[in-house]
Amino acid sequence: MNDILLLGANGQVGWELQRALAPLGRLIICDRQRGNLEDLDSLRALVQAERPAIIVNAAAYTAVDKAESDHERAQRVNADAVDLLATLAADLGAWLVHYSTDYVFDGSGSRPFREDDPTAPLNTYGRTKLAGEQAIRESGCRHLIFRTSWVYAARGANFAKTMLRLAADREELRIVADQIGAPTSAELIADVTAQVLARLRDDPQAVPSGLYHLAAGGEVSWHGYARFVIAEAARLGLPLRTTAERVLPIMTHEYPLPAPRPANSRLDTNKLGSTFALTLPDWQFHVRRMLVELIGEKVA
Ligand code: NDP
Hints:
Elements: E1 4-7, H1 12-21, E2 27-30, H2 40-50, E3 54-57, H3 71-92, E4 95-101, H4 124-139, E5 142-148, E6 151-152, H5 159-169, E7 173-176, E8 180-181, E9 184-185, H6 186-202, E10 210-213, E11 220-221, H7 222-235, E12 247-250, H8 270-276, H9 283-299
Parallel strand pairs: 1-2, 1-3, 3-4, 4-5, 5-10, 6-9, 7-12
Antiparallel strand pairs: 8-11
Helix pairs in contact: 1-6, 2-3, 3-4, 5-7, 7-9
The chain binds NADPH dihydro-nicotinamide-adenine-dinucleotide phosphate.
NADPH dihydro-nicotinamide-adenine-dinucleotide phosphate binds near residues 12, 62 and 149.
């Protein structure tokens, strides 16, 4: 039996996982209503009733700024519930697939972070996500933790879609240029997850339990990313007031937010690529696909 319990099925990554995991086994699809990570008793009852071979947790408290003033809920969803899922997975002998973030790092240094680099989160979201990772490791369950960055999808709220909205309204945008990372598509995250789980089904020995960085290739600042999105959207015929040239670079301190962000958000993905023989395309590839999906048909 290859039952897969999917939590957070309506998020950016969860939605894509519904598609990508469907051919791999019986998929038990849980949104917040069926699998609420704030209600640990019902979460336990759900897992014990379904007894899945694999738990895939795409649910998380992802409101990075709100978490600064809502620490308890962020901790419950990102750490306490994950701790419970890991304990249950260990009891059942199930695998736990979980997602974490570049925000576990402090953003220092000038090279991409590796899985074994020291963590030092700058904000509450990062601290609670790191606590979730640690709980999984301590539980002893077999697991795959995929740390990713700057997630976007056609469905859901994200930076690229915010840029399209702002560019339709305003003449000029000012976007942070001193934070570097790789925008990573929920589609790519889901497809990589499915590839690894297919390998797990075919040859369990070929899947080492552990932590893997999973991000698109290349790197860009938020400013460069915004320019790319706006240039591509204009090329696809979307009417916008802002042009790519009128997206101006600013420094992080000029746009203060409640939660501090790491300057260097780059993740070294060599371990994932070499362990599973996977290629991670450059970030532009999936951003273009999303823009065609969002805009292409509208202007055709
Ligand atoms: P989204 O915010 O798009 O989705 C999160 C999902 O979690 C939503 O469907 C939400 O439900 C659900 N959720 C929140 N609280 C609960 C709860 N108490 N019980 C059940 N479900 C809940 O996030 P992403 O898909 O972008 O993120 C997927 C993973 O990737 C997460 O682990 C995240 O930490 C990680 N990540 C995300 C990044 C990003 O830029 N978004 C960057 C790096 C890592 P509802 O739809 O009802 O609100």
